[in-house]
Amino acid sequence: MTTAQLRQGGPSVPVRRTMNKVPQVTALFWVIKVLTTGMGETASDFLAHVMDPMIAVALGAVALAISLAVQFRLNRYVAWVYWTTVVMVSVFGTMAADVLHVGLGVPYTEATPAFMLVLAAIFGVWYATERTLSVHSINTRRREAFYWATVLATFALGTAAGDLTATNFHLGYLASGLVFTALIAVPALAHARLGLGAVAAFWSAYVLTRPLGASFADWMAVSRTRGGLDLGLGPVTAGWTLAIVALVAYFATTRRDIDG
């Protein structure tokens, strides 16, 4: 770890630099990301069913705080720590969106644009402060703080958007999953064919992974009367968790996710 002197429009300010704290963006990165979104959705619903929802939210907040504390103490990317933190963000982000809707009665038609404004505000402050939103430069504590705030906002936004299409628009979970599968290809095509910047394409796709994974996980878990496969919240959570563990173990062993 080194200390760089960066000029912030005035006297030079010491900034603690680390190695990049985010994995390389590969196909497997997106696979694990989608799995964490689905697992977070069903895990949040499962916990709300087996215990008091407020206790579940409190436990989720504590687990997220612990995982973030460990993540911030490291000076480099560690697969197990990073993806555990993403999972905790997924679970807590889902709970936050659900509490806003169920607990406070805020409809998804209002929650979705509200979370969009929150995300836009984070992006605005991040860019105004750092002049970049690239995930290849998460090498200071401040940038890492912006990064995780953005990730949390994307999970909350994606949860609200997925429930909006499934319930308010009456598409159901399977149809919603297929819609978001098609939508997530748009940023990639726009980047390849229309000149959309890599950073904009990345964050656009990142937001869409949340409703995509959650829609398919809900479809697998919910009852047939709700248009699902009726596999149950617990079994779906366990199955998606095992898939995440297997892929993260592969990354931890091969180190093919290290961003050079």
Nutshell version of this structure?
The protein has 260 residues and is mainly alpha-helical. Helix content is 73%, strand content 5%.
Q: Secondary structure elements and their pairing?
A:
Layout: E1 2-7, E2 12-17, H1 27-50, H2 53-73, H3 79-103, H4 108-130, H5 141-168, H6 172-193, H7 198-221, H8 233-254
Antiparallel strand pairs: 1-2
Helix pairs in contact: 1-2, 1-3, 1-7, 1-8, 2-3, 3-5, 4-5, 5-6, 5-7, 6-7, 7-8
Structure notes:
- The protein has one domain.
- The chain is globular, with a radius of gyration of 18 Å.
- The protein is mainly alpha-helical.
- A two-stranded antiparallel sheet has the order 1-2.
- A hairpin with a 4-residue loop joins strand 1 and strand 2.
- The longest helix is centred in the middle third of the chain and has 28 residues, at 141-168.
- The protein contains eight helices and two strands, in the order ββαααααααα.
- The protein is 73% helix and 5% strand.
Describe the structure using short key phrases:
globular; two-stranded antiparallel sheet; 2 strands; 8 helices; disordered N terminus; 260 residues; mainly alpha; 73% helix
* Mean pLDDT level: 88
- Number of DSSP E strands: 2
* Structural shape: globular
* Gyration radius, rounded: 18 Å
Helix content: over 70%
Order of helices and strands: EEHHHHHHHH
Domain count: the total is: 1
Q: Enumerate the strands of the largest sheet in spatial order, edge to edge or round the barrel.
A: 1-2
Strand content: under 5%
What distance separates the N and C termini? Answer: 16 Å
